[in-house]
Amino acid sequence: MKILTQTELIDELYKIGAIKIEDIILKSGDLSPIYIDLRLVVGHPDLLRSMSKLMWSMVQDLEFDLICGVPLTAIPFAVVMSVDNNIPMVMRRSSPKTYGTKKLIEGKFQAGQKVLVVEDVITSGSSIMETVQSLKSVGLEIEHASIFVDRGQKGFENLENNGVKVRSVLKMSDILARLMDNGIIKSEEKARIQKWLRETESKIDIEPCS
Ligand SMILES: O=C(O)c1cc(=O)[nH]c(=O)n1[C@@H]1O[C@H](COP(=O)(O)O)[C@@H](O)[C@H]1O
C-alpha cells in the first residue's frame, strides 16, 4: 500500500471536500473561513488507512498500553491504529449509560495504564481534554495525543499546559501553503485566513484541569 506524502494527502483531502474554504461555525461558536472535515474520510478506506499509518508513524516511539479515539470522528482512525499495531483500544461514552454496566469508559483496562489519545482536528484542545478527564477519572494515565490536523491556534499550548504532549501530522500552515502552491487560494486569501486564525487565537482558552 502506497503511503501518501504530506502534499499528496492535502491534495486528496481537498479533492474529497474535507478542506473547505468557506465560512463554517466552529465548536467555539466562531465563524471560521476554513474548515477541516475529516468525517468524510470514512467514505475513502484507502485514505483512512494512509492517514492512520501516518498518525502511527508520529507516535510509534512512545510508550502506551491503550488507544482511545475522541468521539466521534477520531474513532475510525483509532480503530485502524489499534488493529494494525495490535494495541488494545478503550472507548469513551459522551455520558455514562443509565442502564446495564453504567460505564463511562468501555473496554478492558487497569488503573495506571497509559493511554494514547487520538483526535482528528484540534482548535482549543477542549474536546481532547474532555476525553482525558474521563480517562483519568477511572485511573488511566495520559501523556500524549496523536492529532491529524492542528489548526495552529491555541490547542497545542493549552494541552501542553494540561500535561498532554501533542504530535500532529499536519499543521494549518502546511495546508495553506499547499493550497496556495496549487493555485486553490491566492496570497491575499491566505493572508486573510492567517489573520483570522491569529486574531481568534487570543480568545481560545480552556479551563485548567486537575
Ligand atoms: O469546531 C472546530 O473547532 C473544528 C474545526 C475544524 O476545522 N474541524 C473540526 O472538525 N472541528 C471540530 O472541533 C473539534 C476540535 O475543537 P477543540 O475542542 O476546540 O479542539 C474537533 O473534534 C471537530 O469536531
UniProtKB/TrEMBL annotation:
Phosphoribosyltransferase domain mapped to chain residues: 45-157
Keywords from the named record: Decarboxylase, Glycosyltransferase, Lyase, Multifunctional enzyme, Pyrimidine biosynthesis, Transferase
Enzyme Commission (EC) number: 2.4.2.10, 4.1.1.23
HAMAP family associated with the record: PyrE
Pfam families documented for this protein: Pribosyltran
GO BP, one annotated term: pyrimidine nucleobase biosynthetic process
Stated name of the protein: Uridine 5'-monophosphate synthase
Keyword Lyase: yes
InterPro entries: OPRT, Or_phspho_trans_dom, PRTase-like, PRTase_dom
Pathway as given in its UniProt record: Pyrimidine metabolism; UMP biosynthesis via de novo pathway; UMP from orotate: step 2/2; Pyrimidine metabolism; UMP biosynthesis via de novo pathway; UMP from orotate: step 1/2
UniProt organism field: Tetranychus urticae
Family: In the N-terminal section; belongs to the purine/pyrimidine phosphoribosyltransferase family.
UniProt GO molecular function: orotate phosphoribosyltransferase activity; orotidine-5'-phosphate decarboxylase activity
Superkingdom assignment: Eukaryota
